[in-house]
Amino acid sequence: MRWKSAAAAAVLAVATLFAGAAPAGAPATAAAQPAGKDFSKPAIVILGYGLTPQGAMRPILYTRVLTGLAVAQSYPQAPVIVTGGNARNGQTEAGAMANTLMMLGMPASRIIVEDRANSTVQNAQFSVPLAKKAGATGIILVTSSTHQGRADQNFADAGGNVLATVSFPDGDPGTNITQLVRDVMSPMT
């Protein structure tokens, strides 16, 4: 239980770092941003994770949604793309995430549902065009630490401008620490 509290604090610290990159409602300035990274209107993309046979979210997916919500609160102008098909009991990953976000107070008008993807490659192929159509300056990915490297590469391969990735610790401590360092450094590199 202690690791969950520490992980939640780390996620909030990363979200706070992102908020410092471009304060909500304030115009972005070149001096406040790393070269090539425009956080003025990112799309926040929350990646799916397999549902239970009954169509419920597993703890890893619920944690991704909560992490995405924390990041979205730092960027009130940002659309939130939930991506994942793989329907179980009539529910898709994206549908379950959207419902949870709305239950937690996010307006439906901010949520873009991409419910066709059946893999991380498809998450990227289908979400990148949605982010561009929404006028996003780039993408902030939300996933889990053991999934981050593959997700980052798949989104780059699909033509996405990945501004940063926020990953929640879900693997061994070495992987989690490495990914936390990458999360903290990603807005600056």
TrEMBL record:
GO terms for cellular component: plasma membrane. One of its GO terms (biological process) is Gram-negative-bacterium-type cell wall biogenesis. Residues 1-21 form the signal peptide. It comes from the Bacteria. Keywords: Signal. The keyword Signal applies. Residues 43-165 form the DUF218 domain. It holds the Pfam family DUF218. This is DUF218 domain-containing protein.
